[in-house]
Amino acid sequence: MKLDSDDFELFGVPRRFEQDRVALDTRWRALQTEVHPDRFVSEGAASQRVAMQWAVRVNEAYQRLKEPLRRAAYLCELNGAPIQAENNTAMPAKFLIQQMEWRESLDEADGVEAVEALNGEVAGHRQQALGQLKLLLDVQHDFLQAAQQVRALMFVERFLADIDHRLEQLGQ
Predict the structure, then answer these.
(1) Could you give the CA distance from residue 92 to residue 77 in angstroms, rounded to a whole number?
(2) Which of 47, 62, 79, 111: disulfide with 43, CB 3.0–4.6 Å?
(3) Is the pTM of this model over 0.85?
């Protein structure tokens, strides 16, 4: 293992969006067992510090690889299409209109059923967008378009969190 390997190399998985979550979990546990600082107790402080660096590196890689949106963003960045979500918030007009309609629907929702229906609609959109992301990344290798899709999905994720918050307020 090399500390400067990308996450996919570190985990020994193909550099693609679609990943087997069970295989990632299994590999993470194996890597953690291999680099856990407790294994290096008898080797001194320096070895334990290196082991701690490795453990942190493995955990960071796992967090990126296990979450589809973070994995997609990472793939885009590895392929020269950084997400730059803080600086690039441009979205297609159709998507912005959809966002405004969803926001209005959430604001006007007068009960749990209406909020849950909106949640289902937005979650369905999220699944469809993730499928499109898989196509863009794994088949078409269109990393610039995928980066735009990731930015849009970041909005969707935040909105889903807003819906969850609203459901909590309604006691669900």
Answers:
(1) 21
(2) 47
(3) yes
